[in-house]
Write a structure and sequence with these properties.
Length: 239
């Protein structure tokens, strides 16, 4: 599979521009109809998630942390538009269940109410995309890096939210633990975070404008998510 880079993401914007216009319109209308829904993903990181799902067309997607279901609906639209895939969502709160439209959830969504650490036996065996936006603690990061990532294929795309609200993650946070693991393995990640990669953010934003993706959906522009491959953080094999 190709590496996740700015150039690759820009090509995906070009490839799926028409579908993105429709998905953005639908998300804007959904948010207007549910004013209590928190748009926990900023626009660019939500769009990149959609684009990667459209491109890689996984049969199973795992979402850890849904809150009100904003990321859930973006993911489900990508699966709908691809004509393939099932989303398995794990969360300790069930707000998303009341917000996700039935036409999106029917036959393509399974929601598990509870801490994913207590439901490992219910994870699909063939995870093709892993989306994480849950407890942002170092302890939780160590759990999924050591217990969850080794269960998925090395090429599996992974998204982790709330890493780069500044140029560096908060000390002892999920982001700090994750980036240390990536650095220890000498492995890259991609981000369009304004604080960490302002030039990338600006170029992608300009590219979006040229494609007509102009009107904001959310109110934030931090885009703190990072994208990488599961194999980049798997524990080293025993000698």
């Amino acid at each position: 599979m190709p590496e996740i880079t700015e150039r690759f993401v820009a090509r995906l914007y070009d490839k799926h521009a028409d579908a993105m216009l429709v998905a953005r319109k639908e998300q804007r209308e959904l948010r207007a109809s549910l004013p209590h829904m928190k748009a926990q993903l900023d626009d660019i990181e939500a769009e990149i998630t959609y684009l990667l799902l459209r491109e890689f067309r996984p049969s199973s997607v795992v979402e850890i942390g849904a809150l009100h279901g904003w990321s859930t609906t973006w993911i489900l639209r990508a699966l709908r538009d691809s004509g393939r895939g099932h989303l398995h969502t794990y969360d300790r709160v069930d707000h998303a269940v009341r917000n996700v439209p039935p036409d999106l959830s029917a036959r393509r969504w399974t929601f598990v109410h509870g801490d994913v650490r207590g439901h490992v036996d219910r994870l699909p065996y063939d995870i093709g995309y892993l989306f994480i936006d849950a407890a942002h603690s170092g302890r939780f990061a160590r759990w999924y890096l050591d217990r969850l990532l080794p269960r998925v294929a090395p090429e599996t795309p992974v998204s982790v939210h709330d890493v780069f609200h500044g140029r560096t993650p908060w000390p002892f946070s999920e982001g700090a633990v994750l980036l240390r693991r990536l650095a220890d393995r000498g492995m890259p990640f991609f981000t369009a975070a304004r604080a960490k990669a302002p030039d990338t953010h600006a170029r992608l934003d300009g590219h979006r404008v040229r494609l007509g993706l102009v009107e904001p959906i959310g109110t934030r522009t931090a885009n703190p998510m990072v994208f990488f491959r599961a194999g980049q953080v798997r524990p080293p094999a025993p000698r």
